């Protein structure tokens, strides 16, 4: 580990991934954006590195995010990996437009990757141009910071930079860069690359690296690799429970987009549910609905099975199968815990699962706003205040009965309603990152008006507390603007 100066701040660099050697990455340099403009920064993400907010305003920081400068003494890397994409195996992918600028340790000793997206061509760009566009960079910035605020594991975003450099996608757009943080950028696809190319020595080296850096608690187990695979599965189960409880659709759950540390990684055509539609597909490229909302748990287990194949040289098959068999019960348990919290159900009762399932069936038919409904429950002073919801939906009797049953469970005799409201408001967001809101901010940014992006980030990084002047961000999207599928292009 070495110490370097950046904007007068002493940073502690640890090139842990670079030390793995040339089989794992290629040294590259970012392609600088011409005449860059700062779009938005996240002071919340900067605190993870112990960086003060004023550092984010420095010209040296703008130059770093724009690819015009790198950290002194550190050579950026493009990682190599593979992946199953929509079920088909692609033998080599890699960082085609991203570069690992550095790995830094904060005051707690935590290792953080700083990764620049849109950094230019690498040996893994294939037919790409190495660019990221402003649209997709803003979307990932917003989504990662919003999921973090919701308490869902995710990569983080430090900043987005815009430029006038043209980039051709479906239309001509402008090039941008996104500087993101992650506890690791190692993906399931890293393991697959070395397994299927039969580079077993490098595969075991990668496994040992992940064990040491990210799962040290597993090192004392009888079989550390078996324990690590179980821990990866558990973190993935907890991640999926968060997605499902809050109505988040990832859109492209390929194994190269699955983090080995259980973080939401690579935001493409994501969406939050507006109405509760279990089969909702947010990706226009996903013709068969492989990554539909109600298939995300299934696909996570499929991806873990693909990862498990790479562990077969160090873990017995029966142990891997046993771990995989535990994924669904683990995920269901995490999900039930989150949904109980969202519904204000203290403790656990046998009927809670049935109560939740009844609600989801009703919401599917009633066409009520999914996250908005939970917030209305949170704010209610009594059940009578909620009955107009039932009267206005297409299943009034079912919803009215459910509301009465829920109130009886959430507010047994002697309960304090104010305490219930506070507990539910702390886990049910008033402000949800809707694609219509992001699109409005993107359209303004294309006119070089970045204030809407900054204001949206301000709201979505503190989604639980109502603030005057932000009422429009709490309103549901107009029905005609809901459910638009998004493309993978970025």
TrEMBL record:
Its cofactor is Mg(2+); Mn(2+). InterPro entries: SelO. It comes from the Bacteria. It catalyses: L-histidyl-[protein] + UTP = N(tele)-(5'-uridylyl)-L-histidyl-[protein] + diphosphate; L-threonyl-[protein] + ATP = 3-O-(5'-adenylyl)-L-threonyl-[protein] + diphosphate; L-tyrosyl-[protein] + ATP = O-(5'-adenylyl)-L-tyrosyl-[protein] + diphosphate; L-tyrosyl-[protein] + UTP = O-(5'-uridylyl)-L-tyrosyl-[protein] + diphosphate. Its EC number is 2.7.7.-, 2.7.7.108. GO terms for molecular function: AMPylase activity; ATP binding; magnesium ion binding; manganese ion binding. Nucleotidyltransferase involved in the post-translational modification of proteins. It can catalyze the addition of adenosine monophosphate (AMP) or uridine monophosphate (UMP) to a protein, resulting in modifications known as AMPylation and UMPylation. HAMAP family: SelO (MF_00692). This is Protein nucleotidyltransferase YdiU. It comes from Thiopseudomonas denitrificans.
């Amino acid at each position: 580990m070495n110490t370097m100066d950046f904007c007068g701040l002493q940073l502690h660099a640890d090139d842990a991934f670079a030390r793995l050697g040339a089989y794992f990455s290629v040294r590259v340099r970012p392609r600088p954006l011409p005449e860059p403009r700062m779009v938005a920064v996240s002071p919340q993400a900067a605190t993870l590195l112990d960086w003060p907010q004023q550092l984010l305003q420095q010209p040296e920081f703008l130059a770093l995010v724009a690819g015009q400068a790198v950290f002194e003494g550190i050579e950026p890397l493009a990682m190599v990996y593979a992946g199953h994409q929509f079920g088909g195996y692609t033998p080599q992918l890699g960082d085609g437009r991203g570069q690992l600028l550095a790995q830094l340790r904060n005051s707690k000793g935590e290792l953080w990757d700083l990764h620049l997206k849109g950094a230019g061509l690498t040996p893994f760009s294939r037919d790409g141009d190495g660019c990221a566009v402003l649209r997709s960079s803003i979307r990932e910035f917003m989504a990662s910071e919003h999921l973090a605020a919701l308490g869902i594991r995710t990569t983080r975003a430090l900043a987005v930079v815009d430029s006038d450099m043209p980039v051709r996608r479906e239309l001509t757009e402008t090039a941008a860069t996104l500087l993101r943080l992650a506890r690791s950028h190692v993906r399931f696809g890293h393991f697959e690359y070395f397994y299927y190319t039969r580079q077993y020595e490098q595969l075991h080296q990668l496994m040992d690296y992940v064990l040491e850096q990210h799962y040290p608690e597993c090192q004392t187990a009888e079989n550390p690799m078996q324990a690590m695979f179980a821990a990866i599965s558990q973190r993935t189960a907890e991640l999926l429970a968060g997605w499902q409880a809050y109505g988040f659709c990832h859109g492209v759950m390929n194994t190269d987009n699955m983090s080995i540390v259980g973080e939401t990684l690579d935001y493409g055509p994501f969406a939050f549910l507006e109405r509760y539609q279990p089969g909702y597909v947010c990706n226009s490229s996903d013709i068969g609905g492989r990554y539909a909302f109600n298939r995300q748990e299934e696909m996570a287990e499929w991806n873990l099975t693909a990862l498990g194949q790479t562990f077969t040289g160090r873990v017995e098959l029966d142990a891997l199968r046993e771990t995989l068999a535990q994924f669904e019960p683990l995920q269901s348990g995490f999900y039930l815990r989150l949904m109980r919290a969202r519904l204000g159900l203290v403790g656990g009762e046998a009927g809670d699962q049935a109560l939740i399932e009844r609600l989801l069936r009703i919401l599917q038919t009633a066409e009520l706003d999914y996250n908005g409904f939970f917030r209305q429950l949170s704010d209610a002073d009594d059940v009578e205040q909620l009955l107009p919801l039932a009267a206005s939906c297409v299943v009034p009797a079912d919803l009215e009965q459910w509301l009465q049953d829920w109130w009886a469970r959430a507010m047994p005799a002697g309960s304090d309603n104010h305490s219930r409201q506070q507990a539910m408001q702390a886990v049910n967001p008033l402000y949800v990152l809707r694609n219509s809101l992001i699109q409005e901010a993107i359209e303004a940014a294309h006119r070089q008006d970045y204030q809407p992006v900054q204001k949206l980030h301000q709201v979505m990084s503190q989604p639980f507390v109502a603030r005057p002047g932000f009422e429009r961000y709490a309103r549901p999207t107009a029905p005609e603007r809901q459910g638009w599928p998004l493309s993978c292009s970025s």
